[in-house]
Amino acid sequence: MKRLGKMELLMMSVLMIVLMLITVILFYVRDIERDQIDHRNALPEAEYSNNDHHLLSPSQQESESSNGIDKESGSGVNPFYPEDLNLQLRSDQGKVKDQQPFGNQSIRKISIFVNTSKGEETFSVAPETYNIIVQALYSVDLSDAKAHIPEPSKDGTVFIRFHTDDTVYSVPYDLNTNTYMLSGQRYYATYNTMAYLNLFCRPETTLAMLGKMRAMDVGTDEMPYVSDQSVQYDVKRLKVQGNNFEEWSNQIEGNNEYKELVNFYSIRSDKIKTILVNEHSGILFTGASVFFTKDGVKTADGITIGTSTYEVMSRLGVPNLILQNKWSYQVDKERQLHLYFKEEKVMYMTLTRY
């Protein structure tokens, strides 16, 4: 693809601004409609950070206060809320969803209870994210996701609380091992669960960066600013440090510079996958994606962490997909280069294969 001239760039910039204004108006109208629906259904309002687009948000102290509870001798699955019920499974086979763990009850609210050395906090999950959290739990295969590991220390334990019409169910989750505790057995949680909970509970960690990117990916369900899958690119220009996805995968697997960070249950393959990380270079690998979080690597056009949106557009041209904070360039039907932005500069880059 040839580089764009100044006039073409000017026209394209004007078009982009117009499209963004139209999209902002549509988002505004949509949000008003959602607020009205949420109000009618008595669901809690979502609170977001304007900078990081958190899918979880601080809430006011809940009515089921833990004040006065003897936390050391509390009964039940959640010693901080002894009235909470355990999510009992009838079998250790099949998917969690097959056992209808909540019966016919509707999930009215989801909250996360965290107890750390800094104190106790309760966070509310935004209503539009309920389905993601529930489906991540429902998708776990009770045969393939079993975690045969020593019992982890308590410092990473949080409780995912599912509020139904008249009952609250608590599911213990361990941040250190990315595992649920269900009916006395530990099971690896999915990538989404791992990414979201680390983003909120441990925002300064490496895994939290994956959560930030996943939060930006949620925009895929929204109306894109630009979407044109017919645009073709010179695939050599979509390589990072001269390597495509397969070449990076071959370099990383078996490389002693990459350390095992955490395991997760892959819904797509029904297998346990391991996230590998090179802390020095800021590169992470999940098996399906290579994440670049530091400016030590670049594309053939010099695009790297910190490159502006204007520079990206002038060098690579219009992406196949433009979301609020993410641009995607199609390598082929299965592979993409994604650029994540913050304040109009590249924050992260990823090569993916689906």
Can you walk me through this structure?
The protein has 354 residues and is α+β, with helices and mostly antiparallel strands. 23% of the residues lie in helices and 26% in strands. It contains 6 helices and 17 strands. A 9-stranded antiparallel beta sheet has the order 9-14-15-16-17-13-12-11-10, with helices on both faces. Strands 1, 2, 3, 4, 5, 6, 7 and 8 form an 8-stranded mixed beta sheet that branches. A hairpin with a 4-residue loop joins strand 10 (259-266) and strand 11 (271-278).
Poorly predicted sequence stretches spanning 5 or more consecutive residues: 27-55, 57-75
Broad structural category: alpha+beta
What order do the strands of the largest sheet run in, or round the barrel if closed? 9-14-15-16-17-13-12-11-10
Give a quick account of the main beta sheet: strands, pairing sense, barrel closure.
9 strands, antiparallel
Please provide the ordered H/E string of secondary-structure elements.
HEEEEHEEEEHHEHEEEEHEEEE
- How many alpha or pi helices? 6
Question: Level of helix content?
Answer: 10-25%
Strand content: 25-35%
The total strand number stands at: 17
What gyration radius follows from the Cα positions, in whole Å?
A: 22 Å
Averaged pLDDT: 81
Terminal Cα span: 24 Å
